[in-house]
Amino acid sequence: MALRALLQVGLLLLLPPLLPGVVNRVKATFAGRRGPPLLQSYYDLGKLLRKGAVYSRTTTWVFRAGPAVGLAAVFTAGLMLPVAGEPALVRFPGDFVLLAYLLALGRFFTALAALDTGSSFEGMGAAREVSFASLAEPALFLCFVVLARATGTLSLSGMLGPGLAHAWGDSAPALLLAAIALFVVALAENARIPVDDPNTHLELTMIHEVMVLDHSGPDLALILYGASMKLLLFGALLVRLTLGMPFRSLWGAEGLFVLGLLGFAVLVGATESVMARLRLTRVPQMLVGASVLSMFALVLLLR
Amino acid sequence: MASWIDMTFILVVVVDLFLLASSRLGAAIRAVAFQGALLSLLTLLIASPAHDLAHVAIVAGGALAIKALFIPWLMFRAIREAAIRREMEPLIGYVPSLLLGGTGVALAFAFSRGLPLPTPETHSFLVPTALATVWTGLLLVVSRKKAVTQVLGFLVLENGVFVFGLLLTDFMPVMVEAGVLLDLLAAVFVMGIVMFHINREFSSLDTDALASLKD
Questions:
Q1: Which residues of chain A neighbour B17 with C-beta distances below 8 Å?
Q2: A162, A238, B56, B108: which could form a disulfide with B128 (CB 3.0–4.6 Å)?
Q3: B177-215 core/surface letters (b: 16 or more CB in 10 A; e: else)
Q4: What is the dihedral of CA A216, A221, A226, A227, to 10 degrees?
Q5: φ, ψ for residue A205 (rounded to 5)?
Q6: Rounded mean pLDDT of B160-189?
Q7: CB contact under 8 A, A300 and B95
Q8: CA distance A284 to A290
């Protein structure tokens, strides 16, 4: 039990920076470049942590609290997710609501920190981020409701647990639709390409990255680390939803889970490479489309 | 096997939703062609061994040839000649029409059980898919401005009627099915001619221009 808990927390803490590395490598391969090493994100985090932070005199404690609260919220949310083959460390009926709102809390503090700087660009980014997030939230909740209905449980560990294999047998089309909707939500929540470009450096078109322009050193490291952990979190949701964890043994399940996560990162990288970024006015349309898809999945389950 | 049929029905509905959200005409035409191909596949999938094989093959082949190949080819030719690529801002925006379409789909799936049908349903998704597709076609016809998209809406509406017709494959003679397909073809031809004239008259395919036609 202790080993499992340790392994789960270890995966949650150590694996995240690998995923952006894989995404960047896939994008580089598509573009015909060699790309940065897979472990580049770890080096970046180490470098940032050794640096000092610069704070503008106009900022208050909110600006300093933003990155820490953001990371803490994502980590706490991660504890509720069944990371590998076993149930999550924290589980109770209805924990998916807490998971969604912990993510929202992290976003709220990042947006507050951005507003605290008083920069108009950052305010614009914060406004975009929260307006897209408010459209992604219904889709996320509808996906959870589909899962709850299909498996008959109200905790994430149950929704993504042993009952899922049976649910795939009964209502595969509905779960597939929910998985597609969840992938769209994952792209939007993690500021990936059809919604936001993580590599862009033009403030006018940035969404997520513009909010963190004023953070430096360890604060920026916390933000990058939190962002990659969020990517892992959504990846874990999708991997558990689609693979259903057929292995009983500890190492088999862990191995399959990590492989699934790498597959998710490759899929994200491929999506980023083959798609152009959507115009900002088209993004709500895509997110509403995801909501409609998951609502359709729910209707299929309810009839 | 049963889940493959489910999947095909659901794909037909997903294509409906895609059409409501897409603004690029080329993508929309491809989607309608894909839906036509799906319908022809459905005809084969839900045919029971009791059906006359030749009858089923003719209906499926006719649907594939006309709905998935010939009409899309005509539409592509039309947009190439008129040199238009995308729909303008429609009367009902993309997000509202997606929501309306989603509501229609939900209502169709929720209430189709209560419909009194003269024949037993061959598949429980058949009637809701037909209703949702007809509803999508109707929405496209009334809410879009370009003549090409309106024709696409008519085709989708017709696809819905075709799905409903699958309910009756036992009873419908081949001549009736062939007549329906020919009817569709004739309608698209006429619309093509109308589109050509609108284009020549106003050098655009915007049907709003027709409203300002005086004496």
A1: 289, 292-293, 296
A2: B108
A3: beebbeebeeebeebbeebeebbeeeebbbbeeeeeeee
A4: 70
A5: -105, -5
A6: 76
A7: no
A8: 10
User: pLDDT tens for residues B40-92?
Assistant: 998 888 877 666 778 788 888 888 988 899 889 988 888 887 777 776 668 88
CA dist A267 and A278 (Å) reads: 18
| A contact residues 151-180, partner B, Cβ 8 Å cutoff | 172-173, 176-177
Q: What is the pLDDT of residues A158-203, one digit of tens each?
A: 888 888 888 888 888 899 999 999 999 999 999 888 888 877 777 7
E strand segments, chain A: none
What does the DSSP assignment read for B77-93? HHHHHHT--B--S-SS-
Contacts of A176 in chain B (CB under 8 A): 7
What domain range includes position B27? 2-114+121-211
Tokens of B112: 């189709």
> A284 to chain B: which residues are within 8 Å by CB?
95
- Structural tokens at position A7: 């392994």
User: DSSP label at A84?
Assistant: S
Work out the pLDDT band at A279, boundaries 50, 70, 90.
confident
- Contact check, Cβ <8 Å, A289/B113: no
CA dihedral A284, A286, A292, A294 (to 10 degrees): -120
CB < 8 Å to B105, chain A: 292, 296, 299
Please judge whether B99 and A173 are an interchain contact, meaning their C-beta atoms are less than 8 angstroms apart.
no
- The CA angle A112-A115-A116, to the nearest 5 degrees, is 85
Instruction: Give B128: exposed, middle or buried? Use CB within 10 Å, 0-12, 13-18, 19+.
Output: buried
Q: How far apart are the first and last CA of chain A?
A: 41
Q: Choose among B6, B99, B124: nearest Cβ to A288.
A: B99
Whether complex ipTM tops 0.90? no
Q: Quick check: A173 and B14 CB within 8 A? A: no
Percent helix, strand and coil across chain A, each to the nearest 5:
70, 0, 30
Residue contact B10–A293, C-beta within 8 A: no
* Cβ pair A27, A35 in contact under 8 A: yes
Total domains in chain B come to 1
Q: How many residues does chain A have?
A: 303
* β partners of residue B86: B24
Residue A30 binned pLDDT confidence (cut-offs 50, 70, 90):
very high
pLDDT above 70 for B215: no
pLDDT in tens, B112-163: 888 887 777 778 888 999 999 999 999 998 988 877 888 888 889 989 988 8
Chain B, window 71-110: residues with a beta carbon less than 8 angstroms from a chain A beta carbon = 94-95, 98-99, 101-102, 105-106, 109-110
Cβ separation B21–A285 shorter than 8 A: yes
CB pair distance less than 8 Å for A292 and B17: yes
CA distance A296 to chain B (A): 6
